[in-house]
Amino acid sequence: xxxxxxxxxxxxxxxxxxxxxxxxxxxxxxxxxxxxxxxxxxxxxxxxxxxxxxxxxxxxxxxxxxxxxxxxxxxxxxxxxxxxxxxxxxxxxxxxxxxxxxxxxxxxxxxxxxxxxxxxxxxxxxxxxxxxxxxxxxxxxxxxxxxxxxxxxxxxxxxxxxxxxxxxxxxxxxxxxxxxxxxxxxxxxxxxxxxxxxxxxxxxxxxxxxxxxxxxxxxxxxxxxxxxxxxxxxxxxxxxxxxxxxxxxxxxxxxxxxxxxxxxxxxxxxxxxxxxxxxxxxxxxxxxxxxxxxxxxxxxxxxxxxxxxxxxxxxxxxxxxxxxxxxxxxxxxxxxxxxxxxxxxxxxxxxxxxxxxxxxxxxxxxxxxxxxxxxxxxxxxxxxxxxxxxxxxxxxxxxxxxxxxxxxxxxxxxxxxxxxxxxxxxxxxxxxxxxxxxxxxxxxxxxxxxxxxxxxxxxxxxxx
Length: 464
Ligand SMILES: Cc1cc2nc3c(=O)[nH]c(=O)nc-3n(C[C@H](O)[C@H](O)[C@H](O)COP(=O)(O)OP(=O)(O)OC[C@H]3O[C@@H](n4cnc5c(N)ncnc54)[C@H](O)[C@@H]3O)c2cc1C
Hints:
Blueprint: E1 6-11, H1 15-26, E2 31-35, H2 41-46, H3 48-65, H4 81-105, E3 109-112, E4 114-118, E5 122-127, E6 130-141, E7 145-147, E8 160-161, H5 163-166, E9 175-179, H6 183-194, E10 198-202, H7 214-227, E11 230-232, E12 236-241, E13 247-253, E14 256-262, E15 264-267, E16 271-273, H8 280-283, E17 287-288, E18 291-292, E19 305-307, H9 318-332, E20 347-349, E21 354-359, H10 362-367, E22 372-378, H11 383-388, E23 394-400, E24 406-413, H12 420-428, H13 433-437, H14 448-457
This protein binds flavin-adenine dinucleotide.
Flavin-adenine dinucleotide binds near residues 17, 309, 311 and 321.
């Protein structure tokens, strides 16, 4: 059979890789995608989607437990842990099949196996011990990342686990220590604590969800307390003894050393990139601190080789990976896309209440030298939130006092992850606060809180 000549080969089919492949196909390129595991990468199979399926199960259970607040009596609700896990796996499997469908529709070839760069614009793909070389005009590396391991707690997959095991456990642990209070740690804390696990979160930095606004962090802290989740901040795990039936986690805090007993330790300290054995050194692609160095259009130092997603610097988020894939492909296909504005990337954390933010925090805006106007609107004053029985949280907006630029928005509350896109679009369109105040928001919705918070920044708030 004649060798297929590809315009583009993408190594990795996560949200960076599959979106790049589909966009390239739309632009008329012949595309092949190399994938060693499931189509859809971490996001669809082991990240964004299966976690949200688990969180939904926990959320339904939480609602049932509070059903009487809404005038409903439910007797003897109980959980079926393995059914929750199975549902999550089924959702992930269906999403992965969806990528298979999209590839077929877009006439994209799937090349199953482990891809490695070779000189001469080649990718060697190893599958079942057989090696085949493929050639392409352009090659995108989108090999993503995996759980990071700390020397004090090497992942053994049984007692010290990473996110993959955390979403496929056979039984619900009674006691769990989660190390790291970023989005992944917080989401698993919600899932397990809602189901009845005794959860302790250990965070190295002074605040939980350390990238978020300090007031958001404090509000989340109160919510943790209400849910019975213990928090240790300014705390470092120095060792985990897994020899006995229980794990003994040694934690160094400002007050001294403490030992916590638990069944399972979840390492949620971030991710490390899949850089190894993919031929970067053979071809001469330059890396720095575990990430591939790229320019504004994701070109590496080697002509014809690009990198996108978790493997490059920038926030390790699915929507970032996808946007990078589209920008990279449009540029290499001869279009003229704008580089990505990394200051306008929303971040979401799925506890209950949810957290969503974009742009400068209040502290960062002040530190950057802006004179700012800050507006805040609590959900206790929102009719929709009250009616929904979800009055926890607030919306905070930050504007530049001089020119009215919308510098940032920070929210904690029910469904705020669905509200943050308004801010992203408004900032992209360089909208001012007054345009937001004059944009009629539907009543009753949680989104009114954004309009009201903006009005509060300009001393025009009505419902406070
Ligand atoms: C538990 C968890 C929850 C998350 N939740 C969210 C969320 O809610 N929202 C969000 O935006 N982000 C979330 N993320 C982050 C998100 O999953 C990643 O940012 C995103 O998947 C990165 O996409 P990517 O394309 O860079 O690579 P990945 O999704 O990591 O995919 C890389 C793919 O490359 C393949 N691969 C690697 N090496 C090779 C090779 N040599 N040859 C062939 N194939 C290879 C892998 O098998 C994998 O399929 C979450 C992550 C985790 C772990």
